[in-house]
Amino acid sequence: MSTDVTAKSPAPAPPGRSGPAAEGGLLRLMLDGLRRNMRQYGMLIALGLIVVLFAIWTDGDLLLPRNASNLVLQNSYILILAIGMMLVIIAGHIDLSVGSLTAFVGAFAAVLTVQHGLSWPVALVLCLLVGAVAGSVQGYLIAYLGIPSFIVTLAGMLLFRGLTEILLKGQTLGPFPDGLQKLGNGFLPEVGPHTNYHNLTLLLGLVLIAAVVWQEVQGRRRQQEFALDVLPTRLFLLRLTALVAAILLLTLLLASYKGAPIVLIILGALVVGYGYVMRNAVFGRHIYAIGGNLPAAKLSGVKDKKVTFLVFLNMGVLAALAGLVVAARLNAASPKAGVNFELEAIASSFIGGASMSGGVGTVLGAIIGGLVLGVLNNGMNLLSVGTDWQQVIKGLALLVAVGFDVWNKRKSGS
User: Fold this and answer.
1) Cα 150–Cα 373–Cα 342 angle in degrees, nearest 5
2) Which residues of 317-346 are buried (b: 16+ CB within 10 A; e: fewer)?
3) Is the bond leading into 175 cis (omega within 30 degrees of zero)?
4) CB 297 within 8 A of CB 309
5) What are phi and psi of 189, to 5 degrees?
6) What pTM was estimated for this model as a whole?
7) Is the dihedral of CA 126, 128, 131, 136 positive or negative?
8) If you write DSSP's letter for every residue of 26-59 in order, what string do you get?
9) 274 class by beta-carbon count within 10 Å (0-12 exposed, 13-18 middle, 19+ buried)
10) Helix pair 341-351, 363-382: axis angle to 10 deg
11) Cα 384 from Cα 152, distance rounded (Å)
């Protein structure tokens, strides 16, 4: 009489019970989740490593409160440009004119306020309108006349640089009114009782932490409701903890110096607003659609010409805002302002996860890419690295980021 010895699969581990198999399965799930989201988290991890390395190499000088504040002020205008450039690249285009446009707007603001004595709020509005007009003209040529964006914006780069020279007559013009200077150098006022920290900055930091936690939890629940893939719980909690720790560290650093710079509040509002548009609004989905697959987007009823036009109009407004910020920070308009800003913005976008073929990228990714370049610049300056080697290192960083994008797409395709 034979005995049935048919092999049976092991019973699943009961909920809440740990064991080698359960731990191994969880580890595999976490690694799979990390691999699926490598485009999104790769540069975030790289930014953390760069901060740690330069903090060690500079004996902690990188994380001094004064240096953290300067890091925000020095890179604010590049981050503003990177947000607009990310939208342009997602839509499948490029904009080479933003550096020259920032210089032109700064020169225009100087002429209005310094030479003609116009009040700075009126000058600010007029400068933003100039940026909108410049962006809309380029957008019309690209979207409705079909001229390649590379050609249009290359012509714009030369045009706006020449107009800047004409406005300033080759000279530096300043200083700006105090109200406009605060846009690039000002800090939030002191409120509340006297403490060792800036109270308003601490309050804003706590509000931001609560908002980030709420947004991440709600986003995860929404994904689960639609049966979409979500990160494993432990990896999600690890990600959330890292975000909260980074915000808390920056808040404490800024609050122990002069508080949050005004431009950081502006930048935060832009990140939240544009992040919402790209994630939730129809316009944001249309930008991804025309960049990812233009013929399919047209068949789906997307008004690609209108979307492209608005993307470049938006880029013009953000370039004007960046021009005001950099001019206010320098307290003068210079014919040489904005040189290579377009390259910095493009590099920030690609380092932050944008794809050369369009249709891929996030606003937060653009900020992370800009911070990677900003920390590299700041750290190498603290280490007294020459500008020649700084260019080499930043070029290699861009090459590695784009190479990673190509490798990631090939691996996903295979």
Assistant:
1) 20
2) bbbbbbbbbbbbbbebbbbebbeebbebbb
3) yes
4) no
5) -70, 160
6) 0.86
7) negative
8) HHHHHHHHHHHTHHHHHHHHHHHHHHHHHHHHTT
9) buried
10) 120
11) 39
Give the whole-angstrom CA distance, residue 275 versus residue 364: 7
CA 306, 308, 309, 310 torsion-angle sign: positive
Could you give the CA distance from residue 127 to residue 326 in angstroms, rounded to a whole number?
13
Q: What is the CA radius of gyration of the chain?
A: 24
User: Whose CA is closest to 364, among 76, 83, 50?
Assistant: 83
Taking alpha carbons only, the member of 84, 99, 116 closest to residue 335 is 99
Q: Is the dihedral of CA 364, 369, 372, 373 positive or negative?
A: negative
Q: Is the dihedral of CA 394, 397, 403, 405 positive or negative?
A: negative
CA distance 199 to 251: 10
In the chain, the amino acid numbered 213 is V
Tens-digit pLDDT string for the chain (414 aa): 444 444 444 444 444 444 454 455 555 655 565 555 555 567 777 888 888 999 999 998 888 989 989 998 989 999 999 999 999 999 999 999 999 999 999 999 999 999 988 999 999 999 999 999 999 999 999 999 999 999 999 999 999 999 999 999 888 988 998 888 888 888 988 887 777 888 899 998 898 888 888 888 887 887 788 777 777 788 788 878 888 888 898 899 999 988 889 999 999 899 889 988 998 899 999 999 999 888 999 988 899 999 999 999 999 999 999 999 999 999 999 998 988 899 999 999 988 888 888 888 888 889 988 998 999 999 999 988 888 888 888 888 878 777 776 676 676 655
